[in-house]
Amino acid sequence: MQGAPMHWCPRCRGVLLSPGKVDAPAAQRNYRWVARRPDHRTRRAAASSAPAPLGPTPHYTETPRWGLLDAPPPAAAVPARPLRGLAARRDRLLVACMTAFLLAGLAEYGRYLILLRNRTRLIPEWLLWLSDSTVWVFGTLAPIVALVTALSLVAWLIEARRAAFAADGRRDPRRRWTLIAGCVIPGVNLVWPGVFLTELLGTDPDPRALRAVRIWWAGWVVSGLVLVVATLWRDAGTLQAEADGVSFTGFSNLCAAGFAVLTLWTVRLLEGRDLRGAARAPHRWVRAADPAQVVIAPVQPGVPARSEAVERADSADSGENALEEVVAK
What we know:
Layout: H1 40-49, H2 82-88, H3 90-117, H4 125-167, H5 176-184, H6 192-200, H7 207-233, H8 239-270, H9 308-328
Helix pairs in contact: 2-4, 3-4, 3-8, 4-5, 4-6, 6-7, 7-8
């Protein structure tokens, strides 16, 4: 049984309860418990003797972000390579090449229309000067842009092959000069660029990427043959052959513009993008499964329904047969 409450501490002889009723409710008590540190006496004496000056109110100059921001690791320093800058301008050069060849083709067809008009009427001098100027400007600009674009594509091929083989933990088995020679030397460059692109796809290529490379390869060979024919046609002797040569030159320029678009589509497809440069979203095919329960019961083949007339005839026949049996009896 618990004893009576104590008013004095048996150790320090301090007052444990203030004078009052022991069982008084909390609202009527005239005391409260205060928690103090053991050294509160010495701290109070030191504070009263030498008060410390109050400093500025602590505050944040901005919203605190400690513990809320996980800074990303610094990117690894990429060594500067001369081919990487040329390869980065690949898309813009392809668009410029397509535009230059398109304008060159339109200029050639404009000259061809002037030749047709000149069969019956004289052509003004200013129109001839304008036609000659456009044909010369775009006919000179288009091959120069095509050459720079070809160098950019070769640089992209070298960098793409290096990155693809490095992802597999290997080095490109072909040297840089082998890739450049296979893409630049006439005649040889009709075969080796397709081989280099096929090797870029790896041992287990994506069927869509492989099909795109084969289409590009076929277009590259056809473009080379069209260029050879257009070059040989310029040496024709008759006027009609020269006029046809002008028309075929315009056709070859339009083919070159189309091939530039095909090249842009191919390289962006190999990078996982579409022709406009947006990331290509993959398509997922899900196998459709039968429902757990049959929603509509299948129609079972049964006895075909008999018409009402046939049923009446059968009933009449059965009645006559019964009558005949009765008469016979």
